Amino acid sequence: MKICVTSVGRDMTSGVDPRFGRAAHFLLIDTETDQFHCLDDITATGQGAGVMVAQSVINSGASAVVTGQIGPRAYDVLAAAGIEIFLAPSATVGGAIQDLHAGRLEKLRGPTSPQHAGLRA
Amino acid sequence: MILAVVSGKGGTGKTTVATSLAAAWLRDGPVMLADCDPEGPNAHHFLPQLGELIETPVNVPMPSIDQAACDLCGDCVDVCAFNALAKLPDRILFIESLCHACGGCALVCPRRAIREEPRQVGVLRSGSAGDLRFLQGVLSVGEPRATAVIEAMLEKVRSQTTAEDDVVLDGPPGASCPVASVVRAADVCLLVTEPTPFGLHDLIQAHELIAARGKPSAVILNRSRGDAADTKVEAWCREREIPLLLTIPDRRSVAEAYSRGVPLLGALEGIEEELRSLRDPLRRLADAGRNGVAA
Known about the structure:
Radius of gyration of chain A: 13 Å
CATH topology of the largest domain in chain B: Rossmann fold
Number of helices of chain A: 4
Strand order of the largest sheet of chain A: 3-2-1-4-5-6
Structural class of chain A: alpha/beta
Structural class of chain B: alpha/beta
Largest interface: A-B, 15 and 13 residues
Number of domains of chain A: 1
Order of helices and strands of chain A: EEEHEHEHEH
Distance between the termini of chain A: 30 Å
Radius of gyration of chain B: 22 Å
CATH topology of chain A: Nucleotidyltransferase, domain 5
Strand order of the largest sheet of chain B: 3-6-7-2-8-1-9-10-11
Oligomer: heterodimer
CATH architecture of chain A: 2-Layer Sandwich
C-alpha cells in the first residue's frame, strides 16, 4: 500500500508538515518495500490548492494520507476517492508511518479546518 | 458619459458623492445611478423618492456532468484554472465553491458530457426616484463573486443608456476584481478620498488600478478640516497631474443628514452648484480618455 505524507523536508526524518494543501513536500511511501520518493511535481498555487494536491495524491496511487490538518474541499475530494486520512501533526514522517502501522493514528471522519487555514499557518 | 465613483478605502464618501452628483446632474439631462456594490448596496437609502423596484435574477452558467457519458479523459480537470474539478477513479467531482463559471470545461469535453446550467447568484433591481433612473445589484448571501452581478448590471446600463446620458456608477470599495469591472466599464473615474494616511494609501492603490486600464481620473477630497492632512492628498494630485475637483468640508451637519438618509444636497449650502459644475470637466476628461489622450 502507498501512503502520502505531507512533510517539511525531503526524507523520512523530516517532520510532518501540519498543512495539507500548502505543505512544503509530499512523500510517497510504499509500505511493502519501505521505498519512498518525493512527489516533486506538486506545487499548489492560487485558489483551490487543497483540491489540486488531493488530485495529485489520487494520481499517485496512494490509498492513505497522513497530515496535520485538512480543509473541507480537499477532504471531500480525498473521501470521494476512497482515500483514508490520518492525523500526525507532531511526528516525523518515519515515526508517523510506524504509528500508522501500530494503529496509533486517528482516522479522520471530517475536515479539521476551515477553508484557507493552511495560508494562515 | 459613464462615471465610476471609487475610493479604495471604504467609508470615504463614495455613495454620498455618487447620489448627490446624480441628483445635481438631473437638472442638465437624463441620469442613471447604478449601485455597483452588490455585497453591500446602500445608495437606495439616499433616494427618498425611490419607487417600486423590478427584480430580475442574475444567473451564472455552472457545469453539470453526465457521468454516464464521461470517459474520464480528464481534459476538463486540466483546463480548469481554479481547481474546481477533480478526477476520481470512477467519476469527475465538481467543487462548486471554486468554480468561476468560465465555461472552459464544457468547451473542451470531447464527449460533450458537460452541460452548462444556470444558477442564480444574485438579483438586479431597477426603478426610478423621480426623474432619476436607478439600478441596484445584490449578491446572494454566501456567493463569492460580486463580479457576476456587476457584469450583469453593466450590460443593463449599456443597453438602457446612450452616450449622451450621464451614468453614475457607485463603485465597490477596495482595489480588486469588483472595482476593476466597474472601472473597465467607465469613461472616467472619480476617486473620493479622505485626508488620512489610510485614505491616501488606498487612493494611490485605486489610482494604479485605474491608470493600468488607461482610464482618466479626478479626485474629490471629502471630510477636509482644512489642515495639514489635506496637503498630502493635494501634493499627490499635483505630482500625478490628477485634477482635484472638489474639497468637501468635514461638518457635523453632513454626518447628521447622512444618518437620516439625506444626501449632501440637503446638508451643505452651495454644494449642488459645485457638483453641477463638475460635469463639464469630467466630460472633458472622459472625451480625452476615449481619444487616448489621458493615461
